Amino acid sequence: MSSTKRLLASIHDVSPRFEAQVDQLAGVLENHLGKGRFAMLVVPDHWGAAPLREAKAFQSRLRNWSDSGIEMFVHGWFHRDTGQHSGAANFKARHMTAGEGEFLGLEEATALRLMREGKALIEDIIGREVAGFIAPAWLYGKGSLAALGQAGFALAEDHWKVWKPGNDEVLAKGPVITWASRSAMRTASSLAFASLARTVLPHALDTVRIAVHPGDVSKPSLLSSIDATLGRFARSHRPARYAELS
Questions:
Q1: 162-195: per-residue pLDDT in tens?
Q2: Interstrand relation of 207-212 and 170-173 (parallel, antiparallel or unpaired)
Q3: Total-model pTM
Q4: Which CATH class is domain 2-245?
């Protein structure tokens, strides 16, 4: 295993709404990467139905996870996209996510407010700075990108790269390996891509990113693929922290 090759893994949609699924995924990641060697993307109020501010027991779990070394990212606010889109943004909203690209169509002022409120809430809970901001579904509009430069986050990520919002310096490139559970066709496509990635990407990328979601635990085929993919890259890439990129 080369010390210059890094494996960055993350659990998305961390929320009281998905506590059992997050527990299961954390166990899978720990089995391959070790304790605290991955990130969690925290949603302050998933779809307006799971306010983190009121979930005291889950707040305690977030603090414990953070204390163990898990990096915490702000992952939108509601995660749900309620905007109206046109052109390229409409295509992204319809085909790249199931109504969850919350920050795709937000105006700069709204995006900045939600980013700052999410940052303050999660930092108050965990007692340290968050690692950065990652938009739901990795989708950003012009307003959200403009807000990122003002919100004070050290890192941001989309599907193709990790960068510093302050100066737009790109820190890592390459597609995120992720899975889809919401349709049979999308599941099959994600399984095929993960299989291809296990063959091609160990030699092609110094930094490999793997992202899992609560819905992944609903299908044994996805869990099997996640297990195989983590095992493959853990042999060639060192489990690392996003902070090491900056």
A1: 999 989 999 999 999 999 998 999 999 999 999 9
A2: unpaired
A3: 0.91
A4: alpha beta
